[in-house]
């Protein structure tokens, strides 16, 4: 993959889900307050009311437990994404320091670059399409291998941009990504409804980049980079909300399923971060 060709997202992913609703404690409390009026003549009604109050308390505790487990799962997905980014950064730096990437390109030429692209796309497609049928450990290994291949490919940025530009772009991306994630998690706006629009925008972006590979138009590269940055900013908010929705839908299917969903969400968030980083670097970076 030559620099400027963005890693793309895999479309074969589970559909979005809405969260489940749980019983509210107010119902049991209200019943409990009314029951003593009947218990003056029939004590069993008071006992029944007490039982309903206990059921409501159990429902509230269950709802809290699910919400807490959901928060832990979302945190785990972002943790997996962070590890993937660290793997990418380490491999990219080592590829530059050891000269491994340069040697690889000299030995394989265009075939090597195409091979890297094919391997990354194949891993992303298989991971997105088959993750529900594979073990969580296998999915995690595939994700880290994908991150390592991405890091080896991104070694090329050291040949184009100076270290200062790379560091600034990385810092801006991290701050931007954090702000977008917090907005996605706290806003009442349902970004999941914008999914089809974002996918159409992604397709248009890919086509535009392919065209620019063959046609050099002054100023068009900067425009496409700006549009790409806006698109993946929207994708970041979308994936933040989708991560929460997926965990809400699969939280009752056991720890193994939650681990798989964590890897899938981590892959989506990872791609959002990497794409935003590359677009910001192209817009603000100083070339050597």
From TrEMBL:
Instruction: Indicate the segments annotated as coiled coil, or none if absent.
Output: none
- Assigned keywords, A-Z: Membrane, Transmembrane, Transmembrane helix
Assigned GO CC terms:
membrane
Tagged with keyword Cell inner membrane: no
Q: What is the protein's major site of localization?
A: membrane
Q: Where in the cell is it found?
A: Membrane
Taken from the record, one Pfam family name reads Bax1-I
Q: How does it sit in the membrane?
A: Multi-pass membrane protein
Which stretches does the entry tag as region Disordered? 1-20
Which residue spans traverse the membrane? 77-95, 101-129, 141-160, 166-185, 197-215, 221-240, 261-281
Q: Which family does it belong to?
A: Belongs to the BI1 family.
Protein name stated in the entry: Inhibitor of apoptosis-promoting Bax1
- Taxonomic source organism: Bifidobacterium lemurum
């Amino acid at each position: 993959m030559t620099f400027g060709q963005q890693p793309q997202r895999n479309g074969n992913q589970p559909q979005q889900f809405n969260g489940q609703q749980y019983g509210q404690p107010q119902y049991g409390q209200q019943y409990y307050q009314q029951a003593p009026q009947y218990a003056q003549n029939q004590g069993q009604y008071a006992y029944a009311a007490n039982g309903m109050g206990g059921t409501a308390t159990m429902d509230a505790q269950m709802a809290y437990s699910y919400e807490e487990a959901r928060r832990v799962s979302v945190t785990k997905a972002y943790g997996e994404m962070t590890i993937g980014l660290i793997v990418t950064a380490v491999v990219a730096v080592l590829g530059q320091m050891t000269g491994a990437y340069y040697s690889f390109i000299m030995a394989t030429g265009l075939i090597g670059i195409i091979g890297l692209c094919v391997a990354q796309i194949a891993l992303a497609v298989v991971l997105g399409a088959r993750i529900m049928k594979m073990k969580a450990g296998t999915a995690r290994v595939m994700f880290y291998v994908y991150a390592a291949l991405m890091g080896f490919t991104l070694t090329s940025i050291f040949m184009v941009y100076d270290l200062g530009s790379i560091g600034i772009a990385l810092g801006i991306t991290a701050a931007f990504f954090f702000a977008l994630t917090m907005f996605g998690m706290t806003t009442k706006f349902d970004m999941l409804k914008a999914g089809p629009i974002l996918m159409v925008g992604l397709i248009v972006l890919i086509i535009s980049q392919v065209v620019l590979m063959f046609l050099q138009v002054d100023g068009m590269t900067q425009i496409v980079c700006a549009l790409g940055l806006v698109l993946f900013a929207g994708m970041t908010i979308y994936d933040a909300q989708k991560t929460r929705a997926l965990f809400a839908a699969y939280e009752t299917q056991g720890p193994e399923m939650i681990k798989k969903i964590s890897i899938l969400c981590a892959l989506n968030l990872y791609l959002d971060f990497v794409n935003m980083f590359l677009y910001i670097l192209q817009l603000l970076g100083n070339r050597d």
